[in-house]
Every structure is written in C-alpha cells, then in structure tokens.
Amino acid sequence: MKIAIGIDVGISTTKIVGIRDGKVVKPMRIKATDPITSLYGAFGKYLYDNRIDLSDVEQVMLTGVGAHYIDKPVYGLPTSKADEFLADGLGAQYESKLQRMIVVSMGTGTSLVLCDGNEIRHIGGIGIGGGTLSGLSRLLLKTDDIKEIIALAMKGDISSINLQIKDISTNPLPGLPMDATASLFANAQGNASREDIALGLIGLVLQSIGSATILSALNSNIRDFVLIGNLTLLPQCELLFPVMEKIYDVRFIIPKYSEYCTAIGAALQASRIGG
Questions:
Q1: How far, CA to CA in Å, does 71 sit from each of 75, 84, 143, 218?
Q2: Which tens digit of pLDDT belongs to each residue from 212-251?
Q3: What does the entry list under GO cellular component (predicted)?
Q4: Pair (141, 236) in one structural domain
C-alpha cells in the first residue's frame, strides 16, 4: 500500500506525517536553520526511520509558510501544495472524529477554521499566539526558551498577576466563579517574580485565544472547539481551558496528534487530487 506524505513547512521547523491505508504513520518534527534544509532533512529522516522507499510514496503534499520556498518536486516525487486552512480542518476532523466544530490553530498567531461536514472555511483569527508568548517573554523574562518559560510558570501564582473577581466583588457574579479573571495583568506589581510573570504571559495568550474562539461561535450553535498547533503542548492548557469550558458550557478538545494536525490534513488532501 502506497503512502501519502504531508509536510507542514515552517521557517525553521518542519512537521511530517504519512497516511497509509487511512492511518497515521509516526509523525516527526525537525528543526533547521531554514525551510529548505528543514524540509529535506525531515523528509529524508522520515523515510529512513520508517523504512519507506521513494517508490512507496504516492504523493507529497506541502503546506505552511515555508512551502512557498519549494518550487520543484521533492526528490522527483509527485508534489503539490495543500491549502493550509483546509489542512487544518481535515486534520482536526480526522483526529477528533468530529465533523462540526471550530478548529483553533495556535501557531505564531491563531487562526479559526469552521468545519461543518464537507464545508471547511477560514473565519478569522487573532494576532496572539506562540509569537506573542516568545516576544513578551524576551522583553519581560529575558528569554524565549519555551522549556524555561514553562518551568518558571509551573511555580507561578496567577493571583499575583491577574485581577480576579474576588478582588473586586465580595459576591460571585452571575455565571462567574470568584477566581475568574476580571483583568489580565491588572494586579501585576513592579517587583513581580519571573515565575508569576511567566504564568501570567501563558495565561494571557491562552485566555485570549479561548475567549476569541468562544466569541467566534456566538452566531452558531457550535460548542466544540478543537485545538491544534504547538501551543497545545503547554501544560497550562490542561488547567485553563477546563475552567472556560465550565463557565461557557463548551468543549475544548486537544486530540492525540494536535501538533501535527495540519500535516495530517495536508496528507489527506492527496486523495483529492487523485495522487
């Protein structure tokens, strides 16, 4: 059985996945100094590690910002460009087993894709995402090492950064618990610890994304939101999104291969062009 390869080419990181007989074959990510090196390095390592011969590859589908740098067939194989928003939707549908939802692609910024069966379309987004976290961390923490930021945040106290309902009201407000956020960073002091700042920054990014997602669905009855992209790997997702679920009666879903959904969706587009 031949395999379709989906490759999500970033500027410095490439994610690659194969789809064979309707099943995902061992996703992989590779970092490099440029998209060309990243793509060819990822592709070669993926084939080698999974013992896939070039003759076994039916189609290569490229997506992502780095895909625009590739203007010829990869290793002489049939190569096409995949629509990124369609890839987000197809990958999220495949991984979540849902057909109707809003896909929240949390990358450098955040894009929102509406899925309703075969209808998949981009409906907007916000300029807040991993790039925001990195930039603000450079300014306030003097580092953009995500592992260091996460480690600091794990020791932080969010009440030292955010203004909460309990800070402004002696009684709960309708539908809002006392520890709900009233204002992001409004409690921050000049001597705030790096740990508290790190947690505040992660919370700012994730809460902003969550709120924008919920607002995007107000004119529909969609209550399922599938989160994909690198930010889904933040451990704070497991704390923040359940709180928003409870307040707004929605579901935030992080599928198994959330980081690779766009690459999966790219590979799934191979069938649409008939190989």
A1: 12, 17, 36, 41
A2: 999 999 989 999 999 999 999 999 999 999 999 999 999 9
A3: cytosol
A4: yes
The structure tokens listed for 110 are: 């955040």
pTM over 0.85: yes
- What are the φ/ψ torsions at residue 224 (nearest 5 degrees)? -105, 125
Cα of 58 vs its chain's centroid, Å: 27
The number of domains in the chain is 2
Q: Which two tokens stand for residue 87?
A: 């890839």
Question: Which residue, 54, 81, 108, sits at the end of a domain?
Answer: 81
Structure-block tokens of residue 104: 């929240």
Among positive and negative, which fits the CA dihedral 260, 261, 262, 267?
positive
CATH number, position 70: 3.30.420.40
> Looking at the domain assignment, is residue 44 inside a domain?
yes
Contacts of 37 (CB under 8 A, 6+ apart): none
Interior CA angle at 145 toward 143 and 149, to 5°? 80
CA distance 49 to 69: 25
